[in-house]
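User: Could you walk me through two proteins back to back? I'd like the raw sequence and the structure tokens for each, with a short line separating them so I can tell where one ends and the next begins.

Assistant: Of course. Protein one, sequence then structure:
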Amino acid sequence: MQKYGLNKLNKLVTIPKNPSLHQLNQRIKNSIQWFGKACSGQSVGESFISLAIAIESLLSQGRTNKETKSLYIANLVGSSHDQHMSPIPQYVSKEFLNGLSKAKNQSEKMKTIYERSNQLFEIRNKLVHGSAGIEAIDPIALIDFEALVRNSILSVVSLSWKNEKDFVNWGRKIRSKNANRKLINGSN
């Protein structure tokens, strides 16, 4: 369990708030609460929107666009820092799993995760802004979104950020990396 960040997660929930970790802890707790709501949602649409709120409460800093959130997810779930965070084959769509399996290296794996995340945020945007209804959500998309959100939460919990500032600096570093810019721009 410790390997998957659950020990640290348990400490976040049970130990009194450390002032230097308060914002980051709150970010993680909010995300977990929304993830729980997604798991008990009464409909595919309710669950999908709850997952979107879960990942946005974890990763967003104000108005964060879908490309940036997708970039964060690709770095959290697809980075070599935590191989066990990869989506578990039984819990993702065959199409997504095929893309991950075909990846020849870490960069291709991250690109696959980035592209799938972007597709899922596009569905979220259409739902929230009214250009599509609940029927636009394929249940397979919900499965992939759940896997990415779950693994993003676990990855954040397992990282050694000391406070919110460390998290913000990580985000800046991720956005500025040349390789990550290539993901967003679609270059190889």
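----
Protein two, same layout:
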Amino acid sequence: MPRKLPAPVNNEKLLALARQLVPDDETCLEDVRLAVEDPKGYVARFRSRLEERTIKGPEPDMPWIALVDALEARHLLVEVDCREAAEEIVDLIEPLVERYGLEPDHWDWIDEDDWTEADAASFLQEANRRFASHGVVLGYIDISSESCPLIALRPDQFARAQELARGAGYGRIVRFGDECLRLDAG
């Protein structure tokens, strides 16, 4: 069932968000623009990608999903399932945070404090807290799904992304720890 949008949308803000998150890749902007201007064309072009989400046709939030998929295709976002173990989450998010120059020992706390058994939400909140000292914010793009599309940005980039997402009206970008994240296990 398609998700209803909570507010009027502003596609210019959404395109500005895409531009901000991937400034050096016009194809990302083109993907999102296609979802805005020609949702049926977007579905036809990215059918296999959308089938993974069980999306068979245009939906009201198609441009928001297009942004998530475009970021994932460019390795700037990873989707985490709430049932994943901490070690699996580390493997998924490592490429997101390594581009910010974190030292190889930035994951040592997992074994020291026995985070290997923590639930995904608690683990990701703790990871964000620890990354903050390195100038990295870990958050997620809310797509009203059981998966959690994760992004990592510098604090100023993250704040701007949140502002643009609010203005776009499709959904939210949330910093881990700003609110209680509930990841249902199905």
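The first helix runs from residue 11 to 21.

Let me know if you want the two compared in more detail.
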